[in-house]
Amino acid sequence: xxxxxxxxxxxxxxxxxxxxxxxxxxxxxxxxxxxxxxxxxxxxxxxxxxxxxxxxxxxxxxxxxxxxxxxxxxxxxxxxxxxxxxxxxxxxxxxxxxxxxxxxxxxxxxxxxxxxxxxxxxxxxxxxxxxxxxxxxxxxxxxxxxxxxxxxxxxxxxxxxxxxxxxxxxxxxxxxxxxxxxxxxxxxxxxxxxxxxxxxxxxxxxxxxxxxxxxxxxxxxxxxxxxxxxxxxxxxxxxxxxxxxxxxxxxxxxxxxxxxxxxxxxxxxxxxxxxxxxxxxxxxxxxxxxxxxxxxxxxxxxxxxxxxxxxxxxxxxxx
Length: 319
Fold this sequence. Notes:
Helices cover about 55% and strands about 5% of the residues. The chain is an alpha+beta fold. A hairpin with a 2-residue loop joins strand 3 (about 85-90) and strand 4.
């Protein structure tokens, strides 16, 4: 059983009955599982169960001054959670650390989202959107919320569901420019200097930028790097590029291999440019035939950003 399904069943069979002891909190909490951990993305397997895998869920409560819950009630709630079955569906629980010290248990809603995006309510400025790590945003909106009568947690996650369009364009523009610099320009030049190790760094930079571009085109956050390929293969748009990226990362840089790698990079650029052209054409901001390479596409995207202040920032401000 996957961790997310285990959490849902544990909530339904153990957590929901427990909350009947707190009728005064019935509309003040939400329950679910999201945040750090492969199970929150649905990527847990036998290997990942060697640490931090247990039946459990998060109980979100707003503990700010306006919605304050007295200390005695909070203590009772934490004790009640700690008293839930120590084993469920054959999986054992670890000892709970109070007030959401780990990945399960009672959690202050504002503190959780502040830890992921810097804002307790998910309201971000343009500067915030550019600054917050993408993998942290992915953790804010992954998993599932099982119960949320007030809708507070659901609303915050909706605000963070993906970048505003202008921010997406800025980030896509920056990554397209990096693709051009690292793959089409620097990779072959570095090899002419005989620096195979540095050439591989350029290939890695190209893959990193290209992967982020693909996620941006799909309107999906790229998760932490160890799950990046797993998530990439699931994308409906250009997910098939995972094999090309794997080849670029694992192949040699001798004369014959480097020629193949350069051709693969050109193919990757062509596919991403095609989808970028569709994006621009759909918004009537630039004709796709004006995009001859990732660099020209980058500047075309940047020129179409509606927010003048954001548009005038350095083109790499989003990467």
